[in-house]
Amino acid sequence: MVAPADLTKPVPFGRESRRRRFALLATVVAVAALLGGCSSRLGQFKGSLGDVTGSTSNESRQTDISALARRYDARPGEKAASLAYGLALRASGQHAQAVAVLERASIANVGDRDIAAAYGRALSDIGRHEQAMGVLAQAHSPDRPDWRVLSSQGVVSDQMGQHARAREFYLQALQIKPDDPGVLSNLGLSYLLTRDLAKSEEFLARAARQPNADPRVSANLALVRDLRSKTAAATRPPEKARPKAAAPANR
């Protein structure tokens, strides 16, 4: 994520120059580790922030999944049961099973946009990005765009490394749902992936100001601000050492 500093250039010898070089290397490594950790957290922001929630305990979530599984088994492929079960499976990290459930639902409910949206998001969870984009495109139309689906398309585009395209999706979503904190957060994380920390902070701060912002937005904003501070410190030219006072002449 972070381009390594060019340490192949000749560096003058001396205690101070060695100290500066090792300090710079340590800072770059720290920033790289922090930014790498933040990029891996993008998976928490699939679609809008409300898409998958992890607020319930593991015990209650497992109980919910068991109940939803029984409901699904009674009517496999039925829309409401499939959506609820698929969402619960995704929230618990059972992504392959979620894909299987929603794939079956998509066959049983051809053309249903809610199913297509959920199925597309589930496909992106397991890295089938091209297929996810195709399915998500069926979840809305130009004359009836869905801002949640647009945001999901942006996330998948970011996962594919198509960051400019991702930002177009986010901006389209914001035209429909201005100042939505989930979309703003996705946009901020998109800029984080290309190391544009200033833009990333701008959109994450805007997201954090919204009254319904998820707590993860503030956490990521704090991380980006920390990264900016460390990056600035790593690139700041060192202060010149003050000249030593001349020793008094012997008389």
What does this structure look like?
With 251 residues, this protein is mainly alpha-helical. It has 2 domains: 15-45 and 140-235, Serine Threonine Protein Phosphatase 5, Tetratricopeptide repeat; 57-138, Tetratricopeptide repeat domain (Serine Threonine Protein Phosphatase 5, Tetratricopeptide repeat). The relative contact order is 0.11. The chain contains 11 helices and no strands.
Show the helix and strand layout.
Blueprint lengths: L14 H26 L17 H17 L4 H13 L3 H14 L4 H13 L3 H9 L9 H13 L3 H14 L4 H13 L3 H12 L6 H21 L16
Helix pairs in contact: 1-11, 2-3, 3-4, 3-5, 4-5, 5-6, 5-7, 6-7, 7-8, 7-9, 8-9, 9-10, 10-11
> What level of helicity do the residues show?
55-70%
User: What oligomeric state do the depicted chains represent?
Assistant: single chain
Tell me about the largest β-sheet.
none
Low-confidence stretches: 1-50, 52-56
Q: Kindly name the structural category.
A: mainly alpha
Q: Radius of gyration over alpha carbons?
A: 24 Å
CA-to-CA gap between the ends? 62 Å
Tell me the domain tally.
2
- Total DSSP helices: 11
Number of strands: 0
DSSP strand content: under 5%
**According to CATH, what is the class of the largest domain?**
Mainly Alpha
CATH architecture of the largest domain: Alpha Horseshoe
Q: How much is the average pLDDT?
A: 79
The CATH topology name of the largest domain reads Serine Threonine Protein Phosphatase 5, Tetratricopeptide repeat
Q: Secondary-structure element sequence?
A: HHHHHHHHHHH
- Gross morphology is elongated
Identify the CATH homologous superfamily of the largest domain. Answer: Tetratricopeptide repeat domain
